[in-house]
Write a structure and sequence with these properties.
This protein starts with a helix and ends with a strand. It has six helices and eleven strands. Strand 5 and strand 6 form a beta hairpin. It is an alpha+beta fold. Helix content is about 15%, strand content about 50%.
């Protein structure tokens, strides 16, 4: 076993010394596994429109595949420097497609339940979501280590995301919505979100983001290398409306102060920002 490990170590070192991308076009294909912490924000005026006490975020996950094309300005050709420490800089653009996650919780006081409280939890899973951006990378240590910074966005294509709504006190929700004209709400509920024509055309689908990456580049052949990376990304998103199911509308309309609220009520201060953190794995190819 020890001899086998030594052989693999020798092969690994030789590959690292034989091949490295030094200049020119580089494209890569990556798979990203992403954890996401939702960070909602809303002012008191918009909370009062719903009779809601607060909005809090939760943590979920998403997946996506990504294609990236860039140009490496090698240190030896463009900066007249040896590439052992600083290997150059690259400019790149990327396009990906995958899933998206937003998770929130809120609470309010029901008209006919007195002091009984129930926290409502809402998880939305979107698919597909388009991911795009442009950025730059610093290449170090003979192109083995890359530090990247990019600006981009996500565009929600999905018109009917999957919704999972549950509560820590479902009986209070059932009692509190018992007098609603469209009937009581029985949680938990797993369903598809069906948007009205107005909401489908009016809500903002675009979120903007900034992303920082650390990647390790392991050459496998003259024009192919393995990429393994870590990244974090902050997304800014203002949907303008509460994009949730009709059951959530019934719950809010049963709150003190929420009687006149509908899902078409505009909420200018409502942001559903998120902090992503994840790992990526893929392959890079020298196109020269």
């Amino acid at each position: 076993m020890k001899k086998v490990l030594i052989i693999f170590a020798v092969i690994f070192i030789n590959l690292s010394n034989l091949y490295s991308f030094t200049n020119g076009f580089v494209w890569s294909a990556k798979f990203n596994f992403n954890g996401s912490a939702t960070i909602p924000s809303i002012n008191k005026e918009d909370l009062n429109k719903m009779g809601v006490d607060y909005f809090k975020g939760s943590v979920g996950y998403s997946l996506n595949g990504e294609l990236e094309l860039g140009y490496l300005f090698g240190s030896e050709k463009w900066f007249n420097m040896d590439n052992k420490k600083f290997s150059g800089m690259s400019l790149f653009g990327y396009l990906g497609i995958g899933t998206g996650y937003l998770g929130q919780s809120f609470s309010g006081t029901f008209e006919n339940e007195g002091s009984s409280k129930a926290n409502i939890f809402v998880n939305l899973n979107y698919a597909p979501v388009l991911d795009f951006g442009i950025g730059t990378k610093v290449h170090l240590l003979e192109d083995r280590l890359m530090l990247g910074l990019s600006l981009g966005g996500k565009y929600i294509i999905d018109n009917s995301p999957e919704s999972y709504v549950y509560s820590d006190n479902p009986q209070a929700v059932n009692n509190g919505t018992g007098n609603h004209p469209n009937g009581a709400v029985n949680l938990p509920i797993l369903s598809k979100l069906i948007m009205s024509k107005h909401l489908n055309q009016s809500f903002n689908r675009l979120m903007l983001n900034v992303k920082f990456t650390i990647e390790y580049n392991q050459p496998l052949a003259e024009r192919v290398s393995l990429l393994v990376g870590l990244y974090t990304r902050f997304n800014i998103y203002n949907p303008h409306y509460l994009v949730m199911t009709k059951d959530i509308e019934k719950i809010i309309q049963s709150y003190v102060g929420g009687k006149n609220f509908t899902l078409e009520t505009k909420l200018p201060s409502y942001f559903v920002n998120s902090l992503d953190f994840g790992i990526s794995i893929g392959f890079a190819f020298n196109a020269n």
